[in-house]
Design a protein that fits this description.
This protein is of the alpha+beta class. It has an 8-stranded mixed β-sheet with strand order 6-5-9-3-2-12-15-14, with no helix packed on it. Strand 7 and strand 8 (77-81) form a beta hairpin. The structure holds arginine (ARG) and zinc ion. Arginine binds next to strand 20 and helix 2. Its EC number is 3.4.11.2.
């Protein structure tokens, strides 16, 4: 059942053309697929064509117009003997979209019909060589009730449409660009559009439309703005222009992932489209901009150049994540965006990379590809390409990217093709760098500094801890760019610190670099901008960190220095109690930060953020997550107490701000909420009153949600009052009710598990809606108070969820397994309970392939 990368063979048959006909109905849609197939001269001859299927039945099979007889089924797949070199194959299938709860293939969502084909959903619609290296030109004809499905959309351009008898109508769409089946899409339903247009730099006028359910139009303005910004940015920065006359986006309430880049017809989870000030936070607005950009950028990095096989997933995802990160940075704050991206990488990808589900960004094998849409493939994949950009410089990187697109336009390419294009176009030698594609795990690098006061020489030594992996018996070092700066203490007044930045390349187990002219030992700022996605140990010197936390001119390193101090203190508190001296240093830094007028509030907000609990667990391993959570809150309380006056002043100052999406106004909301959180940890009762005022006066969701989050962790009757008010106020908005679920499941509250059980029994909770399931249970799984409750009740609850969800939606069910898979990083008593939960899952009589793979790997028994 395991698929291996090394087993790749080119397809025996190509399918240059596909004609699909859909006779649409909610419970019975008839699909006729007419495929022109042709032997692939590049592949070994095969006497049969293998058409992959998944849970579908062929009602009729025809070859060149006559009924075919010699075919048979092998499991889910249809095997059809073909002696000739070319043929026209017609296959009829009948689907029940309303019964498709997996949300893969063709399904119904709130009365509308839609598709999700990546990675292997097309085979749930029609028998097909459903692999990304088979590219076809699609023509799609849909017909159905005009009342039920007034809007009919597919990829490309609408070439024909009209009325039929009996209240029915039809539309024909044609996509001139050959594409793999995973990029096919169809949408039919009662939808309204926010329309706009964009003219490309070469003068093509593109009609843009964002389709939503009637009543949701007002929430599409930000997504539309983001789309137009993304189209312009991709022209300016990557030289990429849009290539069709229409670009449609549809928002769907039931969706397994964030969004999908189907050619000319992107399909989105509503949460990445709909936003209004009263219902969406600033973070929601940012996520929409990022995801709209991401899917749009796939038009080149993914669609025009696609993947040869699914092992190459990072070719499109890593690159496209980097592109969306650079886009968001350009639209907002570069510094803050980098800090956010690194925080996500560390909180989500580092734990994955140090656990049983670790895999290289280009995996060598998989059982179920859906399990590989991971933080490693996406976010570490983006870091790896970012490193190429850092080593090449922006201009050379652009040359490499241009060459990649020029060489492989219209092809299904590999990661190796990308690396080669970067070597040739950007003039890089990436021989050793390729190891990033082969090796899993976060590299460890330690740095030491030697200073010779007689010569003024400074020597930096970097040593990598090496590990062997895969077929490779000999451990080899990673190649990485290391940005550093040396601050001369005797140089200037603190605050005006600017040192020259150096780009070092680490390419051996041990690398040494010498710098001259330092009378005193300088302060080293290393891995600036997080130039390499590694764990960097620097021989401990807390005074150095304290200095950098206030004065480093690299925003990431300033943030990072403070995070390190805070992490040390949380870990110390959990293990042996607070360190008075370090606490004083920390509150001094906070006090300094709150008053520092060299930074804006968006950056100040970052510096007021304590390390995420998942990072603390990862650092402390084997961890007692509840002790860490308690210690984290205690440290927040200490800061809240020591800086109470300043924090209250911040809260008051920012109350004057008028709502807008400007950086100033967003920054005000960010520091305002962080001030509230710190004050709430210090004095729950006083902060509850402050939170109530913030809640009641709020004219936007950032303020209102922040107040509710603050009060959700406080034991007060106000808590229930505000939660109830929120539920009533937003009862008609599913996305906001998701927040309401998540806030309660994520709260540090003694009865949180009981509350989660109660929430799961509500009428508006359904296992069929992934957003709702994730809102409740991802928040629970990320909340130590709930998930790591000492009896193991949290693990039990998650295991029961996985079992209940698996038959309904295996892909989403499998996403909950990794939380249990972290058992090796947890203290022995809980660790054993986590394993017990996994073992019970493993012993279950029915498990999907998705969940089975994650459970077996998590236990280490695969
Ligand atoms: N390609 C999509 C993206 O933009 C993700 C789709 C993955 N879907 C899935 N069912 N595995 O990242
Ligand atoms: Zn993507």
């Amino acid at each position: 059942l395991t698929v291996h990368r090394k087993d790749y063979r080119p397809p025996a048959w190509l399918v240059p053309e596909v004609h699909l006909t859909f006779d649409l109905a909610l419970t019975c849609t008839c699909v006729t697929a007419l495929m022109t197939v042709r032997r692939n001269p590049q592949a070994a001859r095969e006497e049969c064509i293998c058409l992959l299927g998944d849970g579908i039945v062929a009602e009729t099979v025809m070859v060149d117009g006559g009924i075919a007889t010699g075919w048979h089924m092998e499991g889910d797949d249809l095997i059809l003997p073909l002696a000739q070199d070319d043929a026209q194959i017609t296959i009829l299938t009948r689907l029940d979209p309303a019964a498709n709860t997996q949300l893969m293939g063709f399904y119904a969502s709130q009365g509308m019909l839609c598709t999700q084909c990546e990675a292997q959903g097309f085979r749930r619609i029609s028998f097909f060589p459903d692999r990304p290296d088979v590219l076809s030109t699609y023509t799609v004809r849909m017909e159905g009730s005009a009342a039920q499905f007034p809007v009919l959309l597919s990829n490309g351009n609408c070439v024909q449409s009209g009325a039929l008898d009996n209240g029915r109508h039809f539309a024909v769409w044609h996509d001139p660009w050959p594409k793999p089946s995973y990029l096919f899409a169809l949408v039919a339903g009662r939808l309204v559009a926010n329309r706009d247009d964009f003219t490309t730099r070469s003068g093509r006028k593109v009609d843009l439309a964002i389709w939503v359910r009637p009543g949701d139009e007002a929430g599409t303005a930000h997504a539309m703005q983001s789309l137009k910004h993304a189209m312009a940015w991709d022209e300016q920065v990557f030289g990429r222009e849009y290539d069709l006359d229409v670009f449609n986006i549809v928002a769907v309430s039931d969706f397994n992932m964030g969004a999908m880049e189907n050619k000319g017809l992107n399909i989105f989870n509503t949460r990445y489209i709909l936003a209004e000030p009263d219902t969406a936070t600033d973070a929601d607005y940012d996520a929409i901009e990022g995801v709209v950009g991401h899917e749009y950028f796939h038009n080149w990095s993914g669609n025009r150049v696609t993947c040869r096989d699914w092992f190459q997933l990072s070719l499109k995802e890593g690159f496209t994540v980097l592109r969306d990160q650079l886009f968001s940075a350009a639209m907002g704050s570069d510094a803050v965006k980098r800090i956010e991206d690194v925080r996500i990488l560390r909180a989500a990808q580092f734990p994955e990379d140090s656990g049983p589900l670790a895999h290289p960004i280009r995996p060598d094998s998989y059982q179920e590809i859906s399990n590989f849409y991971t933080a490693t493939v996406y976010n570490k994949g983006a870091e790896v390409i970012r490193m190429m950009r850092t080593m090449a410089g922006e201009d050379a990187f652009r040359k490499g990217s241009d060459l990649y697109f020029a060489r492989h336009d219209g092809e299904a390419a590999t990661c190796e093709d990308f690396i080669s294009a970067m070597e040739d176009g950007a003039g890089l030698d990436l021989a050793g760098f390729r190891r990033w594609y082969e090796q899993s795990g976060t590299p460890h690098v330690s740095m030491t500094m030697k200073h010779d006061s007689s010569t003024g020489a400074v020597t930096l030594t970097f040593v990598q801890r090496l590990s062997a992996s895969g077929d490779d018996q000999v451990p080899r070092p990673m190649v990485m760019p290391m940005k550093i700066a040396l601050f001369d203490r005797s140089d200037s007044a603190p605050g005006e610190f600017r040192a020259q930045e150096h780009l070092l390349i680490l390419d051996a187990r041990e690398c040494r670099f010498r710098f001259d002219g330092f009378g005193e030992a300088p302060m080293v700022s290393a891995n600036r901008g997080f130039s390499a996605p590694i764990n960097l140990d620097i021989a401990h010197d807390e005074s150095r960190l304290q200095f950098l936390a206030m004065h480093d001119d690299d925003p990431f390193c300033r943030y990072e220095a403070l995070q390190q101090i805070l992490t040390t203190e949380v870990l110390a508190t959990a293990a042996q109690g607070a360190d008075t001296q370090r606490r004083r240093a920390i509150t001094d830094i906070f006090s300094f930060t709150l008053a520092d007028d060299r930074i804006d509030d968006l950056m100040r907000g970052e510096l007021m953020t304590l390390p995420p609990i998942s990072v603390l667990i990862e650092t402390a391993a084997p961890a007692d997550p509840v002790a860490l959570q308690t210690a984290r809150i205690a440290l927040q309380a200490a800061i809240g107490t020591a800086c109470a006056d300043q924090l209250s002043a911040v809260h008051t100052r920012t109350a004057q701000h008028r709502y807008s999406l400007d950086a100033g106004s967003r920054g005000a909301r960010k520091v305002r909420n962080h001030a509230l959180f710190l004050l709430a940890a210090a004095d729950g009762d006083a902060a509850a009153r402050l939170a109530q005022r913030q809640y009641e006066n709020a004219d936007n969701m950032t303020d209102r949600q922040g107040a509710l989050v603050a009060i959700a962790g406080v034991q007060t009757s106000l808590r229930d009052t505000l939660l109830e008010d929120f539920a009533q106020r937003y009862r008609d908005n599913a996305l906001v009710i998701d927040k309401w679920y998540a806030i309660q499941a994520g709260a540090h509250h003694p009865h949180v598990l009981d509350q989660v059980s109660k929430l799961a029994k509500r009428d508006d909770f359904s296992l069929r809606n992934p957003n709702r399931v994730r809102a409740l249970y991802m928040a629970m799984a990320g909340n130590p108070t709930a998930f790591h409750e000492a009896s193991g009740a949290g693990y039990e609850m998650l295991a029961r969820l996985i079992l209940a969800l698996d038959p309904i939606n295996p892909q989403t069910a499998a996403r909950f397994v990794p939380s249990l898979g972290r058992w090796r990083r947890i203290e022995p008593a809980r660790s054993a309970l986590m394993r017990d939960a996994l073992k019970r899952l493993a012993a279950s009589s029915y498990l999907s392939r998705d969940v089975r793979e994650q459970v077996d790997k998590s236990l280490g028994t695969d």
